[in-house]
User: What shape does this take?
Amino acid sequence: MTQRLAKLIARSGVCSRREAEKYILDKRVTVNGNIIDTPAFNVSENDMVLIDGEKLPEIEETKLFLYYKPIGLVTTHKDEKGRQTVFDTLPPSVGRVISVGRLDLNSEGLLLLTNSGALARELELPSNAWSRRYRVRVHGKIDEKKFKELEKGVTIDGVSYGKVGIVLDSQNGTNAWLTITLSEGKNREIRKLMKYVGLDVARLIRVSYGPFQLGNLKKGELRQVAQKVLKEQLGGRFSC
Assistant: This one.
């Protein structure tokens, strides 16, 4: 049985499929001693695939972890400014994992981590419409008419943002808690949307990603999703 080279690399957990395609285009990948420069290349699991001369890790059982990312950690494997990353805080027993999407430095809450680049891609694709739900504390004057505008989708600085669900949970003067639901999760999307309607974000907590919930996780805590649950939640859309 053959499969795309980038998919095999992603399944090994080295990187996401998109990153694997870039490695191939950069001529960093060889198959049976031959440099491959096109992602449109099929391989079998018996072929010898090297990245920068190194063998791929053995393909492990697909794993997914729920992690409560605290404020102040960067969601990258290495940071050019020397800041502490999410991956610096993980126990060695977890092995190499990658994040499903990102949470910015000043955001907290649920971050999904996996050893499978293919699964990360599946969960990130906008076409799969995995909703992300956030609890957001804002400061400023609430105008629910402006919220209705956001719910229909808006364009800010040339960037189009899709429909957003917004619920006003509580309000005390100029401070309020909102529940916001997105299906895209573009870079700093909530902060930009709130600024658009005249609100400042004081705290941003992701509480769910698709069917996966933050629940009672504590800051910095990591919990693996049981294989049975993983297969039930993903259905036939991904083979574990």
In short: Residues 64-127+211-237 form a domain with the Alpha-Beta Plaits fold (CATH 3.30.70.580). The two ends are 17 Å apart (CA to CA). The helical segments are 5-11, 17-25, 117-124, 144-152, 189-196, 227-234. The chain is about 20% helix and 30% strand.
